[in-house]
Amino acid sequence: MLYRIAADGLVLFHLLFILFVLFGGLLVLKWHHLAWWHLPAATWGVAVEVFHLTCPLTQWENLMRSAAGQTGYGGGFIEHYVWPVIYPAGLTPSIQLGLGGVVLVINVLVYVRVFRQRKSRRTSTLSNTTRSL
């Protein structure tokens, strides 16, 4: 029972991680310090999709399900939980590359905006400091 609860909790964490990879850059617009968490997460998310890596969270979930007497599943988290809902035909390598590209483009756009905001703040701070002198 405990392993099943842990596996279900891990599924929830996995989903939240994926959402953070996809949309965490939007949080960085407000809280810049989250970039230290989001950049590595987004890098990992892109790498998993582009290089077809197996996420360790999927392996851990399958191990916990086995320990609970349940069967695990083949493939990854997205193939098992997300794609059957969105794309019942299944996940192909080209779709995975597309997903990785979408994550990359969204986050590059967000971070370009973050860096521009920081640069404009620094410029205005410097000009205010020079004026007060």
Automatic annotation (TrEMBL):
**Which superkingdom heads the taxonomic lineage of this protein's source?**
Bacteria
Q: Any idea which UniProt keywords this protein has?
A: Membrane, Transmembrane, Transmembrane helix
Give TM regions: 12-31, 94-112
Q: Record's Pfam families? A: DUF2784 (PF10861)
Keyword Membrane tagged: yes
InterPro entries per UniProt: DUF2784 (IPR021218)
State the protein's name.
DUF2784 domain-containing protein
Identify the species of origin: Pseudomonas migulae
Q: List the taxonomic lineage.
A: Bacteria, Pseudomonadati, Pseudomonadota, Gammaproteobacteria, Pseudomonadales
